[in-house]
Specification:
Number of helices: 15
Radius of gyration: 24 Å
Number of strands: 13
Largest sheet: 8 strands, mixed
Strand order of the largest sheet: 3-2-1-4-5-6-7-8
CATH class of the largest domain: Alpha Beta
CATH architecture of the largest domain: 3-Layer(aba) Sandwich
Order of helices and strands: EHEHHEEHEHEEHEHHHHEHEHEHHEHE
Length: about 425
């Protein structure tokens, strides 16, 4: 059954495309707005430009039911939409300052094509205050309409975990804060028609904005804690994974997090900076969040240091050595390169004079590492003598240890502690994990 409301999604990336696909599947007419011609073409053909199984399943269902999202770069079609969802990136600049350019640009594009009675929902992750202090003034300025009177505004922070087999856009609960109670009820109702997860209404937009920030800051802090423990336990000679396994037997008050060569993705390494900076602007310093960011940002350096130390034991210098990085995405089995620590690892290795080679089967083009990227595993193994596993894709875990030995690999640094450690040791290959040796 077709739903009467027309939905517009600004940004057809990791957040917008799944939401647009699900809304269309639930019977809404959906316009997907993007500025990338290639993405528009693929979406109009019910094809995904993102490697995600659940998203591809949604698009396959749309194709089977002869439905599709109307993807376009013609923002005048916003006039036809009853609900407009902003799903654009919210990155940080090199100095870690929040970059709200995409949100501002999307808001202006909407405002120039608005009409009375519309609902505008920001899903992009932002610090408390952005919706009311940045977005609404832009919407009002270019539309000559008044928020809360002529149109409704809400914030519903996105919750997407690429590659997660259990939790997806359909079943993850959502929280919403709106400018008015009527707007809150109206927007919550349309979400309840799109997703199956619980809809939680909050008292304010700022509260909703803060939810996503603390979710990811919580993870960042806990990951920083185990990363620091991993570095400490390396000196003690204690296996961090064994300790975490033991601690996990406690049935309450402990939640396992795991160390790695760095924190990536568009949320965890980015969102804390939004809160850190906003708090600073209003006179508060988040010392704990800053320390967590410092520790996690250091992990690529620590990973390279582990390799250097193991090479020194073999009386080998890193300079001019052939070092390979397996996997460049921020986590395994996806094609998402955003904020991946593998890039910092590659940069550090090159800075120290190593010859770097990278193998990433899930991504065709890797900007900045075009010369270092090799196309096949065999080519990679023929060139690299020392390997850092930065993203343990399932196909990497299936490679037998003797294949690495036959290729002459001397050292493997397991940046995510996922390889079969004992298999490599049996083959005489030096294996080092992050706190797991």
């Amino acid at each position: 059954m077709e739903n009467k409301n027309i939905i517009g999604i600004i940004g057809l990336g990791y957040v917008g495309l799944p939401l647009a696909s699900l809304a269309r599947l639930k019977g809404f007419k959906v316009y997907g707005f993007d500025i990338n011609a290639s993405i528009i073409e693929k979406v109009n053909n019910n094809e995904s430009h993102i490697e995600d199984k659940s998203l591809k399943t949604l698009l396959a269902k749309l194709k089977k039911e002869n439905k599709k999202i109307e993807a376009t770069d013609d923002f005048t079609k916003i006039k036809e939409c009853d609900f407009v969802f902003i799903c654009v990136p919210t990155p940080v600049k090199e100095n870690h300052m929040p970059d709200l350019t995409p949100v501002k640009s999307a808001s202006e594009s909407i405002a120039k094509n608005m009409r009375r009675g519309q609902c505008i929902v920001l899903e992009s992750t932002v610090y408390p205050g952005v919706t009311e202090e940045v977005m609404i003034p832009i919407l009002e300025k270019f539309s000559n309409l008044k928020a809360g009177i002529d149109f409704d505004v809400a914030h519903c922070p996105e919750r997407i975990d690429p590659g997660n087999k259990k939790w997806n856009v359909s079943n993850i609960p959502r929280v919403i804060g709106a400018l008015t109670k009527d707007g809150l009820d109206k927007i919550a109702k349309v979400y309840s028609k799109i997703i199956d997860g619980e809809i939680i209404k909050l008292s304010s937009i700022k509260a909703a904005e803060a939810v996503k920030i603390i979710e990811n800051s919580f993870r960042d802090i806990n990951i920083a804690f185990v990363n620091e423990l991993a570095m400490s336990f390396d000196k003690f000679g204690i296996d961090i994974l064994e300790v975490i396994k033991g601690a996990s037997t406690k049935p309450f008050a402990f939640m396992p997090h795991f160390p790695s060569c760095g924190v990536g993705g568009h949320c965890i390494p980015v969102d804390p900076y939004y809160l850190i900076q906003k708090a600073k602007d209003i006179g508060f310093e988040h010392k704990f969040l800053k320390l967590a960011r410092e520790i996690n940002n250091h992990m690529p350096d620590y990973t390279v240091k582990i390799l250097e130390n193991e090479m020194k034991k073999l009386k080998i210098r890193l300079r001019k050595a052939n070092v390979g990085i397996l996997g460049m995405t921020y986590k395994e089995n996806i094609d998402d390169l955003r904020e991946s620590p593998a890039f910092k690892i590659a940069h550090l290795l090159k800075k120290k004079g190593a010859n770097v080679f990278v193998f990433e089967p899930h991504v065709k083009n890797i900007r900045g590492l075009e010369k270092e990227k090799v196309e096949t595993l065999d080519e990679f193994l023929s060139k690299a003598q020392y390997i850092i596993v930065a993203s343990p894709h399932k196909e990497f875990l299936q490679i037998p240890a003797n294949k690495f030995k036959d290729a002459g690999i001397k050292i493997i640094i397991d940046g995510k502690n996922k390889l079969a450690r004992e298999d490599f040791k049996k083959e005489g290959i030096v294996y080092r994990g992050i706190g797991h040796n």
